[in-house]
Backbone:
């Protein structure tokens, strides 16, 4: 049976539970769900992330909120004579991979009959949630920082969502939203496990595009870890179903100016550091207090992976280099590519590497 479960105390909740964390101990919620992969059916379906229908925890097809998203191209890019496969997740309807999570989360919102939601975001998750809310006809309010890229804020407003601009950092925004969650459903991409059961389709698609194989290494950006955790859930689903034989090595990229999880990893610490973070052009991963930090460190360590931190100059260089090759991305996405460059520079063995471009350049055009 599908249910929510507290990762700290084990308390179970029905899937229509409206809280965003455990009401007994405050722990993070996970979703217990048995993903199935009927291959013959999957092969015959449209190339969208919903082709893995039986692996996505939405009960009724009527509730699916979709723009036929997913199945983004996996393109080869040659770096230092090594071919890296790069998933083009900036090509989603809202311009970032967050559509994967938002499609499943808004389908769940519809399935529960919820009519009003609230969310906080560095911009892209907010845009995706606002877009799917528009399609689902759900009233939506998005909290953003007054430093968020204007293009992202305009996009959220264009979908008809109400915008609440909060002065200061991403953390101020995350704090400001909490009182609102008493009245309205908190459709959080960081807390809500349904979001991760959307981002996990990233792993399914990569495996299918590789002929149902796992790459050796995946190199992913990490702020709150919604793609990294989702990808881990996805590869695990495939492993459990005996479709693939292993979990890839997870390499997480953070901006040096804001790398609290990398610090935890390298210091073998259980807690986020108290050290101050500074601004970075990679606004999507500028997260000082990610709520799932420990989970991210555990995944990276268990997979035999590591963290890479990238300097501002390296991010801007990658942005320039890949634009000149025809890949137009926002700086947050360029941070990942800078991380890929660093990884390949030091690589000693021959590995099949997959990475991704997570956000479109038009998201940040006025600042590039
Ligand atoms: C373009 C882009 N890439 C990567 C990320 C990182 O995602 P996460 O914070 O879930 O790790 C974000 C988050 O907003 C983003 O906007
Ligand atoms: Zn609990």
Residues:
């Amino acid at each position: 049976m599908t249910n929510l479960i507290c990762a700290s105390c084990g308390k179970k909740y029905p899937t229509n539970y409206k809280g965003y964390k455990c009401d007994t101990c405050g722990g993070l919620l996970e979703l217990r769900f048995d993903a199935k992969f009927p291959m013959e059916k999957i092969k015959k379906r449209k190339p969208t992330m919903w082709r893995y229908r039986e692996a996505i925890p939405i009960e009724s097809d009527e509730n699916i909120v979709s723009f036929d998203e997913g199945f983004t191209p996996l393109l080869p890019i040659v770096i230092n004579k090594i071919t890296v496969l790069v998933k083009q997740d900036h090509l989603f309807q809202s311009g970032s991979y967050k559509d994967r999570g938002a499609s499943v989360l808004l389908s769940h919102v519809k399935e529960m009959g919820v009519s009003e939601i609230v969310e906080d975001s560095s911009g892209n998750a907010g845009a995706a949630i606002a877009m799917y809310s528009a399609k689902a006809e759900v009233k939506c309010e998005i909290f953003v920082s007054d430093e968020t890229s204007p293009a992202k804020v305009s996009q959220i407003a264009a979908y008809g969502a109400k915008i609440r601009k909060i002065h200061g950092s991403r953390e101020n925004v995350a704090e400001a939203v909490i009182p609102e969650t008493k009245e309205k459903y908190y459709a959080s991409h960081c807390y809500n496990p349904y979001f991760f059961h959307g981002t996990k389709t990233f792993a399914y698609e990569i495996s299918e595009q590789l002929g149902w194989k796992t790459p050796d290494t995946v190199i992913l950006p990490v702020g709150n870890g919604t793609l990294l955790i989702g990808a881990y859930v996805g590869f695990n689903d495939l492993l459990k179903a005996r479709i693939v034989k292993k979990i890839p090595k997870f390499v997480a990229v953070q901006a040096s100016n804001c790398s609290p999880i990398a610090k935890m990893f390298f210091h073998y610490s259980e807690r986020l550091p108290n050290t101050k973070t500074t601004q970075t052009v990679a606004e999507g991963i500028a997260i000082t207090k990610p709520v799932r930090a420990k989970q991210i460190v555990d995944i990276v360590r268990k997979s035999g992976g590591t963290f890479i931190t990238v300097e501002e100059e390296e991010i801007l260089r990658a942005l320039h280099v890949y634009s000149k090759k025809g890949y137009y991305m926002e700086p947050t996405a360029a941070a990942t590519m800078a991380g890929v460059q660093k990884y390949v520079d030091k690589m000693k063995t021959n590995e099949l590497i997959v990475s991704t471009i997570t956000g479109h350049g038009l998201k940040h055009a006025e600042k590039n």
Q: What stands out?
A: The two ends are 48 Å apart (CA to CA). The domain at 74-96+194-363 is CATH 3.40.50.1100 (Rossmann fold). The chain has a mean pLDDT of 96.
